[in-house]
Amino acid sequence: MATDQGTTPETADDPLPLGLTVAAAGVAAAVLLPLVWLFRTALGVGTTEAVALLARPTTLEVFVNSALLVAGVTGASILLGVPLAYLTVRTDLPFARFWTVVVSLPLVIPSYIGAFAFVSAFGPRGAFQRLLAPLGVESLPEIYGFHGAVLVLTLYTYPYVYITTRAALKSLDTTLIDAARTLRHDRREAFRHVTLPHIRPAVAAGALLVALYTLSDFGTPAIMQFDAFTRVIYVEFNAFGRDTATLLSLQLVGLTVFILALESKVSGDERTAAGGRSSDVVPLGRWKLPALCLCAGVAGLALVVPLGILLTWLGDTSGIGQGLAFRAEYALNSVGVSAAAALVATLAGLPVAYLAAKRDSIVGTLAERATYVGYAVPGVVLGLALVFLGTTVATPIYQTTFLLVFAYVVRFLPQAVGSLRASFLRVDPALPEAARTLGRTPVGAFRSVTLPLVAPGLLGGAALVFLTTMKELPATLLLRPSGFKTLVVHIWTAYASGYFGQAAVPALILLGVSGLSMLVILSQEGYDVR
Amino acid sequence: MSDDSDAASSRRRFLAAASTVGVASVAGCNGLLGGNTTSGEGTGTESGSNEGGTASSSDGGGTVGQIGSGRSPFGDRQLSGGVSMSEMPDLSGELTLYSGRGEALVGELISFIEDLYPDFTVRPRYNSAADLVNQIQTEGQNSPADAFFSVNAGALGALKDAGRTVELPQEVLDMVRAEFHDPDGQWVGTSGRARTVPYNTDTFSESDIPDDIFAFPDTEAFEGSIGWAPTYSSFQAFITAMRVLNGEEETRAWLEGMQELGVQEFSDEFLVSQAVADGEIDAGFANHYYIQRVLAGRPNAPIATAFTEGDAGAIFNVAGALVLDTAEDRTLASNFVRHLLSAEAQDYFARTTFEYPLVPGVDPIGELPSIDELNPPQGLDLTQLSDLEGTVRLLRDTGVL
User: Where found in the cell (chain A) (predicted)?
Assistant: First the structure.
């Protein structure tokens, strides 16, 4: 970390780091705990069978498929997220505020709903083809397969890159760009030499979330009929091949560790920026119209397609679906567990993020990396791991909301940690030190100076956890208390039985509530720029 | 069923029946159910002895005890066969039911049984059958589950193979024909599902569909316009049946032939049936009730049901239930399973899930041949259908998965 030069000997002796280190290590251990089950079950497979399975040509093929999918989605998300962030922060794009909200909103749509909507809309004889049929359109380009999976996953995950990049751009000190330009750099060179290094860690952080999400998602590859790792794991679980499925999951964990290492290399040195002064706005000129088209095109594709499909479901009265009437309780349950998950993830994330950002500590770095592992494990695998833990060591909380919230924290902690860590990096170390010289205790200085400064990042991270918890399905199905229904459980119940009409209302409520938390995220970051 | 032409003609007769019957009856249940919850208490307490008896006479409008001359509590039709819940042992206590059947489909029935008895509480847990089997196995001996309700015999067989089941009482097993329960008495079928070929009636007539499953790969009319759902458990059960009946090599050849034909892939069989109704494909492989469900939503959709004869394409699989070795009260759990075989429950499956009742005397509803008119392969033990691993391996080898 590049911030240690600011640490005085006095603060180095603080008792804070030991407590913090223990706390961070504890959090990391807790989120890695479920992996114990994975190893234990996978060991039950037997070495010869395991080697044979891993060396099978099809295993290799899906490994390559998954890697291609992750690379494709991550690359496309960067190509989409970074320009959109630049446009809405740094240029004179008309209605920039409006577009900021609109291009972030795809994040509130679960990718499996997005995938289903795209298949319904653009599949052969789908809604779109039927719409165009009078114009003589006989068939649309194939939506299934690799490009379809990349398209859908990109549309619903690029906002991770967009949001992190946007925050970094907001904190960019534009006087640096002015300086670069006085050195006769043109805009492009100024971007390359000043802006790019500044936003690179943020882009990498967002891209990491995209990559790991892609790796763990199986709804989308399954619906888009693309043979990724998760789909193979899903088939094994369905054929009661639990051992094989866990063995494949371990391979997935291996891939995760590789991606984590890769990201560490890419993100490189991070610098603290003491808040940007952003007065300079880049005029778009003749690029205004193409820029508007890009924003509208992305939002249109990602939002209008699923909303349109959901609205047609509303009119679908085919299933009467007894006992499927929507109850407000489901929304309250969703909000309740999501808020709890957001709160716990934020509290658990604080020591990890602080340590990872402020101290040159191996424990901090390892703990921060460790939090990402649970995020990349498919929900059903994590769910089963916690079923095992719940029935062996934590019987009293099995099938209670406590274990459910723990599952969410394990899955989504990195979102809180990432956001907090970025905030800690932006705090000028001189400020808490000043408080210390004025006689505050380390804890007091943290509370009165650092915490208020990172509060927006804290709230942003919490909102992100809230949002993704609202959408989570597979772990929820396995771990919820019997009879406890959330919005997504209700959507799944209706959808899986073919009663689409009953899925529309909870899906629209889900999007509405998640949309509100998105507004929180957007209003909180970039606090240093008024 | 002795004669093929007889089968065909009776089938045509059924196919001609009005498709709206099911919809109308489903719509009718709400009001009647409300009436039952208030009067159910009295009927539930009177019985216990009269196993296997036929009909208890009516004791008032719309109550559950009414069988024989009585009406179904789940809609407007006469119940003529089966054993009423009122003649079954009372249920009391708490039961944790892991249900691999969707809440949308069976939730109403389960709350109906629960509401019959004042001291009886069901704690249902809904998820996919495979997820629940994995969950029960992962939970081990600490599983809170008492009974498991599954959409297919494969999931039941998997738990049996894992040694997690207990034997059901003989009088429960005896309620269905021998081929619909486990030979060792570890599980019992509660409703049936036939493998069928949904086809688009704008493209084909019933006679265009081969009645031999092995003729499909060579039927050029299907080229590029037939669909299947290879990750779907019922499809995998069908391929498992083919392996059992015809051997590995013939199954492999069939799978390869279908791929050469350009078969299209879907993620489940409801989507296959929807695609047939939309004309996206002209035919497919699906369980029979998906066609009925499409028709329930779109009575005029150009989709109908065809069957193959006596081969894997026409297997008759069952949804069923079992009692787990972790059940706190095994008697309560097996009595609950018995209630799933009551006349009322069987009638419910016929009318709400469009499945085949398994208890003799309760008829299916909709455009379906009766269970005796079906022509499933002879000598197939449904318990063998739990060997999905070999099937998945074959599907992988042939590149289907």
Answer: Cell inner membrane; Cell membrane
- List chain B residues with CB under 8 Å of A57: none
Please list the residue range(s) of chain A that carry CATH number 1.10.3720.10.
1-35+316-530, 63-221+288-313
Q: Of A373, A454, A366, A357, which is closest to residue A413 (Cα–Cα)?
A: A373
Has this prediction a pTM greater than 0.90?
Answer: no
Question: What is the pairing mode between strands B283-284 and B147-150?
Answer: unpaired
Secondary structure of residue A405 in the 3-state scheme: helix
Q: What are the residues whose beta carbons fall under 8 Å from the beta carbon of A301, sequence distance 6 or more?
A: A155
Query: Residue B284: what are its φ and ψ, rounded to 5°?
Result: -165, -175
- Within an 8 Å CB–CB cutoff, is residue B124 touching chain A? yes
Of 1.10.3720.10, 1.25.40.20, 3.40.50.2300, 3.40.50.300, which CATH number belongs to A1-35+316-530? 1.10.3720.10
> pLDDT for B119-166, tens place per residue?
999 999 999 999 999 999 999 999 999 999 999 899 999 999 999 999
Structure tokens at A301: 């594709």
Of B296, B298, B396, which is closest to A58 when you measure between CB atoms?
Answer: B396
**Position A2 pLDDT exceeds 50:** no
Is B178 buried (19+), middle (13-18) or exposed (0-12) by CB count in 10 A? exposed
Rounded Cα distance between B124 and B111, Å, is: 10
> Total domain count for chain B?
1
Pick from B133, B293, B352: which is nearest to A498 by CB? B293
Q: What is the predicted ipTM? A: 0.86
Task: Using the predicted structure, report yes or no on whether residue A529 has a pLDDT greater than 80.
Answer: no
- A139 close contact with B: CB closer than 8 A: no
